[in-house]
Specification:
The chain is an alpha/beta fold and 200 residues long. The protein is 42% helix and 17% strand. It has six helices and seven strands. The longest helix has 18 residues. The protein is globular, with a radius of gyration of 21 Å.
Amino acid sequence: MKKYFDKWKNKNLWNKISDIIFILFIIALLIPSSRLEIGSFVNRIKAKIIQPSVINNSSASVVTTSNYNWELTNIDGNIVNLEQFRGKVIFLNLWATWCPPCIGEMPSIQSLYDEFKDNNNVVFLLISNQNNNEVKEFIRKKEYTFPVYTTQYKPPEVFETSSIPTTFLISKNGKIRIKETGAANWNGDKMKKIINKLVK
């Protein structure tokens, strides 16, 4: 141990700082309460880089009439149905409060929502299958203002996914133009252009 310490003392300042940061990072990962924050931070960086992939119009899946029949509850406890938003451009995100990639991409979702919140042709639905009070408290702490919903029902087949976050962008005529799994940059120029195009 003394031999290692003597060797470490001879390192330059930058290498010493790097070693200390690495050790602190490992210690933080071992503390359960800090894992979510670290994971979210890493995914926030990832979300600034990854651009969502657009599905070609001719090969896009279509949300059928039965797929629109999905009961949701907003964080104030009011029940709505996905059918109410049919005919609009729908940004639909499946997420959870314990999911680092979900949390990591939320600032970009908030920015996208701020961009389109006054457009009556665009709807944002961030949906979790967790307890409503748990979700409400999370959103309150983070001070997000985008619309959040919970559901106790299994998603319609077209929205089923094996991992979260999964985000769908649905056109007015029900075509899924984006299906993205994992954290992504939702407030980039690419995303704004496709939403504006779908609105027209």
